[in-house]
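Q&A log
Question type: sequence-to-structure
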Amino acid sequence: MFQRIIDGISASTGTTVRLTSLAAGAAFALFIATCFLCAAAFISVLQTYGPVPACLAGAGIFFLLTLAAAGTYWGYKREMQKRARIAAERAAKSAAQSMLADPMLIATGLQIARAIGVKRLLPILAIGGVALGIMASRAGASDEASTEPAE
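Response status: OK
Response body:
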């Protein structure tokens, strides 16, 4: 039984190592090709316009690539923050719903209602509902204020 598990892990590890080395080789080849393309563009601009415009053209191209990479990074970061906030909101909602759907909690509530009586329990429930609403509105307001970035 353990031998099959070990064989499966070994096979998947070997496959992962092979794919990672293949991806690293492809990335290295792409880097070398990009270097030669940059050198060819530099030499072409150098022969046509001179050394200073060639250097400025190369710097401009790499500056634009840097701006594109930074924009992509910031967009990805905002998307991850948005997804994390949505996941946290869903988790909070599901936690509250699962607590109210707990059979032990419902059974305890029914026993309390039978023991106290419905007529005596209604004012207590009304006050509790108002208090719960106030707590929920305050908690929502403080969460919104803390997630806003200070600029």
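Response note: DSSP finds four helices and no strands in the chain.
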